[in-house]
Design goal:
By secondary structure, the protein is α+β, with helices and mostly antiparallel strands. 41% of the residues lie in helices and 18% in strands. The protein has a 6-stranded mixed β-sheet with strand order 12-11-15-16-18-17. The longest helix has 20 residues. The protein is elongated.
Amino acid sequence: MITKDEILTLLNDIENYHIERTVSTDKMDKFCQAICAFSNDMPNSGKKGYLIIGATDDGVISGLKVDDRLYKTITGIRSDGNIQPFPIMSVEKLSYDSGDLLVVEVTPHKYPPIKYKGRTWIRIGPRKDIASDMEERALMERRRANILSFETYPCIDSTLDDLRLDLFKNTYLPAIMDEDALIDDKRDIKQQLSALRLYSIAEDCPTYAAILLFGKNPEYYLPGAYVQYVRFDGNDNAADIVNEHKFAGCLIEILPKLDTFIETAIVEKRPKPITALRERTIYNYPIWAIRELLMNAVMHRDYQSNTPIKFYQYADRIEIDNAGGLYGNAKPENFPNVNDYRNPIVAEAMKSLGYVNRYNRGVARVQKELRDNGNQKAVFSVDNITVFGVKVNDAAFVADNQLRINFTNQVTNQVTNQVDFELGQAIISYKQAELAEYEAKYSKVAVRFDNSDFDSLKTEKSYKILNALLQGPKSKKELLINTLELTSQIYNYQRYIEPLMARKLIIQTIKDRPRSPKQKYAITSLGYYFLMYLTRLPIK
């Protein structure tokens, strides 16, 4: 706060336009207008303004006695809500032989325009007035210029020793500058970092962007700066944890590890029979889509939050959550067509290093990759202002779900009173069960199929018979001749149908008359799960 002697000097400086003197004590509008005008600092001088109560226009102290009521009234101007955003001000009572002065010191606001009761007041020379449209637009442009992202703030108490300068010199600089420019660059390391907004010369310390990109231990300054991977053996957080890993460290080191992890630990492939002679390799998730979603989480997250990026894999889906909702111009009603960058320095670094493209095409391509792979569309959570999330379903799980739907819809429609009670009850339970319960039950039943007793049945012939029975009960001739393209001789019956019956994978629909000419065969609940099991194996 200004001293008593400095105030006396200002009182005598009649030409100083950063001072407003008044002997009034009850003209609140006048006081608030002055504070608003000083806050806007229309000339952009950077100088503080002073409202001095208890002095005449020619600088003479009027003899005012400042009491607590006046002091509290003036102090309350800051937070009474009439001036928005709140002004940066302090109030001081100064006593002289000739009387008291109540001095309000106002610091120019970095983010104008500041408004009093909805109006923008500015100082024009020795007087104040309401800003014109052009003047208000100039203040708004200054606001945009002064707004800094969190990553550009100096990380106080950090030093160059907190950075992996080898990564900056050998990995980052070559990615953003051509070889000739690097050779000609004779600046010291601080100047090089500062030119890229990675170092604050004024504070003599790295910025948060530098700590994130090259820091030896980013968590020391940013406790939530890591990716937490967890794999659950089920469809919710109550399931057992199968695997977990914490990806910690600077982004230059984390990003390639995430890249490799997705390809080797997340994406799985298996053959799927298309016809009797053809099969196609399917993936649970397309590599590029999961990579893009995870890289976007790293790029757009709010690093002021202590919550890590959550990369959770369940039996049926992947969920990725990062702190910070949609940012800037991006809003729920225009997502994903409009994009904005909470961390432009990190975004530019990831683009230069080849992890993102910044062409605002990522989400559209993610959805196409998922669709082409057989996954459902990614579902984004965009309404939460503190968290951004995305959910992607496993393609294999979607395929198994379709298998279940086929079974319940087609077999149930053709089941007759001749089908045994066990199968009927199984079908009813299928229709009522939740998908999560199915997957959990399959996981338990599938353990039985790993037994050698079922090895002889893990064949294409078994697959074709069970798959055909999804259409409804069929006769021996229909299975052998139409489905397997064999003769109906007893040998084929004993080789391909009887073993399935022996393992209770299929049953006869007329149990009390095994040799009935109307005899048909139907798939059992165990047979349905065995068919699911076969779709996940290379078929012999």
